[in-house]
Amino acid sequence: MKPNQSNNSSKKIQIEKMFDSISVEYDLLNRILTFGSDIRWRKKIVSIARTSNPKHILDIATGTADIALELSKINDSKITGVDISRKMLEVGRTKIKLRKLSNQIVLESGDAECLNYSDESFDLVTIGFGVRNFQNLEKGLKESNRVLKKGGVIIILETSVPQNYIIKYFYLLFTRSFIPLIGSVFSKDKSAYNYLQKSAEKFPSGKEFISILKKCDFQNIDIKPLMLGATSIYLANK
Ligand SMILES: C[S@@+](CC[C@H](N)C(=O)[O-])C[C@H]1O[C@@H](n2cnc3c(N)ncnc32)[C@H](O)[C@@H]1O
Known about the structure:
Layout (H helix, E strand, L loop, with lengths): L7 H15 L3 H8 L3 H14 L5 E5 L5 H6 L6 E6 L2 H13 L6 E5 L12 E7 L8 H11 E12 L5 H22 L3 H13 L4 H9 L3 E8 L4 E7 L1
Parallel strand pairs: 1-2, 1-4, 2-3, 4-5
Antiparallel strand pairs: 5-7, 6-7
Helix pairs in contact: 7-8
C-alpha cells in the first residue's frame, strides 16, 4: 500500500496500514537495506544521548523499538516509545518482553503530531526514520518541542541525499534500483518499499531540514552526516 501524497488527510491512515503490513519483516529489511549500519547508527544515538544523562526519554515513531531498546543501556533511564502502527508496536513489545525490559520501556499507541504527554515532561526525544513519514512535519516537530524540558535534547536520525554531486549520482542510481528490488523479493507489500525510496529522495535534508528545526524553536542545531551523507543525525536543544 503506497501512501497517497496528494491526499494529506488520509496519508496518516495509509502510513499506519503500510507499517502494519511490513511489521514482521521490517527489522530484517532494515538490516539488509543499510548493510547492517542501522545497528551502528542507533548505538551512535545512544552515545550522543548519554552525554546529557537523560532520565525520561520519549522515542517517537518507535516502530519495533530498536532505538528504545538501545536507549535502555543508559543508567536509570525510563523510556516511552510511541507509534501509530499497532503491529510495529506488537513486534516491539515481544522484543522488550524477551529481553525482560518491561520495567524500563513502555510502548504506547499515539500520534507524533498530537502527543498525549504534558508540556516539558522529557529530558530527551529521539526520532529514528520517523519524521519523513509525518503528515505535517512542522506540527510533529513542534509537538516534540512542547514535550521536551527546557534545554532538553532532540536527536533525529533520518535518511538524507548526499550533497556531493558524484556521490549523489551513484546514491540515486543505487537506491532507485536496490530498495524496490529488495522490497519485491522480501516483502508482501512491494509498493511500501517504492514509497520508502521515493520519500527518502524528496525529504528535506541538510540545511533545509536545519531551517525547519529552527522554525520549530530548536536551537544549537548540529548535523552529523553518516554513510557519505545518505543518512544524518540531527541534534538540537529546546
Ligand atoms: C521507518 S519506521 C522507523 C522505526 C524505528 N524508529 C526505527 O528506527 O527502526 C517509521 C515509523 O514511524 C511511524 N510513524 C509514522 N508516522 C507517525 C506518526 N504521525 N506518529 C507516530 N508514529 C508514526 C510508523 O508507524 C513507523 O513505525
